[in-house]
Design goal:
Strand content: 15-25%
Low-confidence stretches: none
CATH architecture of the largest domain: 3-Layer(aba) Sandwich
Largest sheet: 8 strands, mixed
Bound molecules: nicotinamide-adenine-dinucleotide
Mean pLDDT: 96
Distance between the termini: 23 Å
CATH class of the largest domain: Alpha Beta
Radius of gyration: 21 Å
Oligomer: single chain
CATH topology of the largest domain: Rossmann fold
Length: about 375
């Protein structure tokens, strides 16, 4: 199996799927690896470093897709990439299929195998923590007066009112957000639907500025905050919201929503995905930050974690073939989107009203 690593073409996306350290492990094991020229440049890696790791440098995306069968990437496929896809390709990248029906059509039409990397992490993607950290950091910045925020500081300087923040959802992303907010001394209330997760988070962050509450309390509290950081994994089929458009009128006029979850029409009704080049917009006067590839802003760090997290699955797919690899690892199997023109991904089938074959049944057929 030849591994292909294309350069990401999504705007402001500097991550690369495999760093030289992991490429070297592959090539040492006799695997051929094709890397598109400059694929790692924004992650601080040159073509020469990939060459030293044993990879072949290809001049363009077409030669990577044309020469490889296992394509390892970071982001979903953009339309410009669809013509490069082939039936015998195995695609391993963050696909977000439930949110991107056009992409699912393209993958099914090709009859190829696609595995969503975002579903394959046993302990959550290392990039999720980074998204929480950077998303909280950006939210804090927008609290400053030149951006129309409350003009409050991190802590009660000379007795002044400090920034008060809410983090909704205390999973991988939420914990990243807490790390940044609490390290600056900001007063935070963390909300979650799970009392178990609240309990664990309180144990981990035993901090005088931090408390937790059940999400049912958030509706009454939302008007208290200068900054609301949304980190909930919102089920795609839900059509209610934690913050509706009408609720925006109940927030402080200077409040900032950093919607890291970034589910359009999800927990935050007025969320729409933005890009780094134009990261914010206002709805009902409230500033929303909703960048959908936050870790792409810190590619040097993000690629290091992502590359390690994907490597074990890449190695297993090479050693066992993708089907056996899925049978051996439930997390990899969870990410199977489609193969041979058959959809297996449960959430995508539910959200898009498509037929599917259960993954286990498909793998054992
Ligand atoms: N914008 C970006 O660049 C970016 C990057 C990474 C992840 N994300 C998104 O961030 C989101 C969170 O990811 P994660 O890995 O932290 O998920 P996770 O499953 O680890 O955490 C989600 C948390 O939300 C809680 N929760 C679920 N439903 C809730 C509800 N109704 N009310 C309150 N809490 C609720 C869960 O108990 C859990 O603690 C996902 O939607 C993911 O796609 C975005």
């Amino acid at each position: 199996m030849i591994v292909g690593i294309p350069k990401e073409i999504k705007p402001q996306e500097g991550r690369v799927a495999q760093m030289p350290e992991q490429v070297k492990q592959l090539t040492d094991a006799g695997v051929k690896v094709l890397v598109e020229t400059n694929a790692g440049i924004l992650s601080g890696v040159t073509d020469e470093e990939y060459k030293a790791a044993g990879a072949e440098i290809m001049p363009d995306a077409a030669s990577v897709y044309g020469g490889a069968t296992l394509i390892v990437k970071v982001k979903e496929f953009l339309e410009a990439e669809y013509p490069l896809l082939r039936e015998d390709h195995i695609l391993f990248t963050n696909i977000h299929p439930a949110a991107l029906p056009g992409q699912v059509d393209a993958l099914l039409e090709k009859g190829l195998t696609a595995i969503a990397a975002e579903d394959c992490h046993e302990f959550g993607s290392p990039n999720c923590a980074l998204a929480g950290e950077v998303g909280a950091f950006e939210g804090i910045r927008y609290c400053f007066a030149p951006h129309g925020g409350s003009g409050r500081h991190f802590y009660g300087h000379y007795g002044s009112q400090p920034i008060k923040a809410a983090v909704i959802g205390l999973g991988n992303v939420g914990r990243g957000a807490l790390r940044v907010l609490l390290s600056l001394g900001i007063e935070v209330v963390g909300y979650d639907i799970s009392d178990g997760i609240r309990y664990r988070t309180e144990q981990d962050w035993d901090h005088s500025n931090f408390s937790t509450a059940h999400i049912d309390d958030f509706n009454a509290d939302m008007g208290d905050y200068d900054l609301i950081v949304n980190c909930v994994l919102w089920p795609k089929h839900r059509d209610d919201h934690l913050i509706s458009r009408a609720d925006l009128k109940r927030l402080k006029p200077t409040a900032v929503i950093s919607d890291i979850s970034c589910d359009p029409g999800g927990a935050v009704e007025t969320c729409r995905a933005t890009k780094w080049e134009d990261p914010t917009y206002r709805e009902e006067g409230i500033l929303h930050f909703c960048v959908d590839n936050i870790p792409g802003s810190v590619p040097v760090a993000a690629s290091a974690g992502y590359s390690r997290a994907l490597y074990i699955h890449i190695k297993s797919m090479i050693e066992n073939g993708w089907k056996e690899a899925c049978k051996k690892n439930a997390y990899l199997a969870r990410g199977l989107v489609c193969a041979e023109g058959t959809l297996t991904h449960a959430e995508t089938a539910r959200v898009q009203g498509r037929d599917r074959v259960e993954t286990e049944k498909f793998l054992n057929s």
